[in-house]
Design goal:
Chain B: It comes from Cohnella xylanilytica. The complex is a heterodimer of chains A (about 270) and B (about 250). With about 270 residues, chain A is mostly helical. Helix content of chain A is about 80%, strand content about 0%. The longest helix of chain B has 17 residues, at about 165-185. Classes of the chains: A mainly alpha (about 270), B alpha/beta (about 250).
Chain lengths: ~270, ~250
């Protein structure tokens, strides 16, 4: 057998078999027990519900995707720039960072209605909620990274008369990259949750509703198979996002950082 | 002639109360190669950090190149080699070596040419594009030395640079250091080591330091001409100097 194919098979074979067994058992148990669909639909019911409402489901996924991307980008830009600002002065860090922690501890569902009052129902509120939930891990991870630069490398930059900006750009930011990537990995999954929570609270707001809205709507009408289909799509969205960030992590760190190095390095 | 480095009653007490250096006095002339020998924590590295302007003394006065350490540093007169190679793992060997010139905003062409020259000095011209993790410990240290040399320093401070290397690599790098130093007659090298053999082989003067708080307790002039080579390393004179250093360390 082709070694590449055999390697692929050995990697995806076991989880694939486990998945098929799980889905098969689910289908069989629900059919034999004759459980009502509204309580626990069979996998075939979920697939049928997704196929029947395909355009709706796709529309909801694309709406949530756009909101998540916007919220994520804002939280990355805000988190990294905020951390650079805090890390450039100890006084600024001591004055502002405690409030960033307070922001992190406030449950997002508690502030979501206020955000809707400020920004109105719709995409602006949803993106703001996704941003708020993704921002804190980006900020704190980046800040830890910027403050963990090797002491001797820092001394070296001082010795060669580097300006503050040169030290930040050439040393502290690259050295913080593994931490920034850690923040991205946490933040990307949180932004999907943020967007869906935002849709629960802020609804449609004119355009096509996202997955959160579709979930609320299906729950109200007890369309359990479609509810499952929406939940499944939300988790696929989360996994896809995480995998993209994972790919970026390998690209940025693969050549030099332990966390992403594979094979025979010393 | 004005000394290159002068310490006058220099003391350093850290904020936690640890007295690292006590009333150290020293004059270093241009072109010397001096080793500081002493037990761990005797303040050798502290003296180096103060001479490089990275830390200020709590008492006394330090003059480097006729001015303050900070000023000497600003005029690019000082280079430092740490115990670890201290390289940026994300940058190529060439970019690591060119760092001092990059920070001075030298043109890219100059950076590349000078990096090439410095890498040739340490025999790593074929590894310019490699990343630090692809090199052995000895090669990484060579990169670190090349980076220190690219800045054309008048004072090269080396804080136990060969401490983590195996004996064979250590001896090879000692030879390379001596050859580089001899080709740059104006360059003064200050070298920290725990190793009496290394100190005797390299230096024209050895300063023995006492345990904390560190004082310079004895000065041993190794008046043996360069190049020294294996005959000196295995001869009776070498043993006599090593014995002198060890005896001074015990007292």
């Amino acid at each position: 057998m082709n070694p590449v194919f055999s390697n692929l098979l050995s990697r995806i074979g076991p989880p694939l078999i486990a998945f098929v067994l799980f889905v098969g058992a689910w289908q069989a148990v629900v059919a034999i027990a004759e459980l009502p669909t509204y309580l626990l639909p069979k996998p075939s019911d979920i697939v049928a519900a997704a196929a029947d409402n395909w355009t709706h489901l796709l529309g909801s996924v694309s709406t949530t995707l756009i909101e998540t991307i916007l919220g994520f980008l804002l939280s990355v830009i805000g988190g990294v720039l905020g951390a650079i600002l805090l890390a450039s002065s100890k006084i600024v860090e001591r004055s502002i960072y405690p409030y960033a922690i307070v922001l992190q501890t406030i449950p997002i569902v508690a502030v979501a209605p206020i955000i809707v009052i400020w920004f109105g129902a719709g995409i602006r509120s949803i993106v703001t909620i996704a941003f708020l939930i993704g921002f804190c891990p980006m900020l704190s991870n980046t800040l830890i990274g910027l403050n963990s630069t090797d002491k001797n490398l820092n001394n070296l930059f001082t010795l060669y008369n580097a300006t503050k900006w040169q030290t930040m750009w050439r040393l502290r930011i690259p050295a913080a990259l593994p931490y920034i990537v850690g923040g991205l990995k946490i933040s990307c999954s949180l932004c999907v949750i943020g967007a869906i929570v935002g849709e629960y609270v802020a609804g449609v707001g004119g355009g096509q509703g996202g997955l959160g809205y579709a979930i609320t709507y299906a729950a109200m009408r007890i369309q359990t198979p479609y509810l499952f289909a929406c939940g499944l799509m939300a988790s696929i969205l989360g996994i896809a996002f995480y995998q993209i960030v994972n790919g970026l992590s390998r690209k940025w760190l693969g050549s030099w950082h332990e966390s992403e190095m594979r094979g025979d390095h010393d | 002639m004005q000394p290159i480095l002068r310490l006058q009653d220099v003391s350093k007490v850290y904020p936690n109360g640890t007295a690292a250096v006590q009333e150290a006095n020293l004059e270093v002339g241009e072109g010397e190669l001096i080793s500081f020998v002493g037990p761990s924590g005797c303040g050798k590295s502290t003296i180096f950090r103060m001479a490089a302007g990275l830390s200020a003394p709590t008492a006394g006065k330090i003059e480097v190149l006729g001015t303050t350490p900070e000023e000497a540093r600003r005029s690019n007169g000082i280079s430092f080699v740490f115990q670890e190679a201290t390289l940026m793992p994300w940058s190529s060997v060439r970019d690591n070596v060119a760092l001092p010139l990059k920070l001075r905003q030298a043109p890219r062409k100059v950076q590349d040419e000078e990096a090439e020259r410095a890498l040739e000095l340490v025999g790593l011209q074929d590894y310019a594009k490699a990343l630090p993790r692809q090199l052995s410990g000895g090669m990484r240290m060579r990169v670190s030395i090349a980076r220190a040399l690219i800045a054309n320093p008048r004072i090269l401070l080396m804080d136990e640079p060969f401490g983590a290397l195996d004996e064979i690599t250590r001896q090879t790098l000692q030879e390379e250091l001596l050859s580089i130093w001899r080709r740059n007659p104006g360059m003064t090298v200050l070298f920290v080591t725990h190793n009496a053999f290394e100190a005797v082989y390299l230096s024209n003067r050895i300063l023995v330091m006492t345990p904390r708080p560190g004082r310079i307790s004895r000065e041993i002039a190794v008046d043996v001409p360069y190049p020294r080579g294996d005959r000196f390393r295995t001869g009776p004179e070498f043993g006599r100097f090593v014995g002198l250093v060890n005896e001074s360390l015990k007292h």
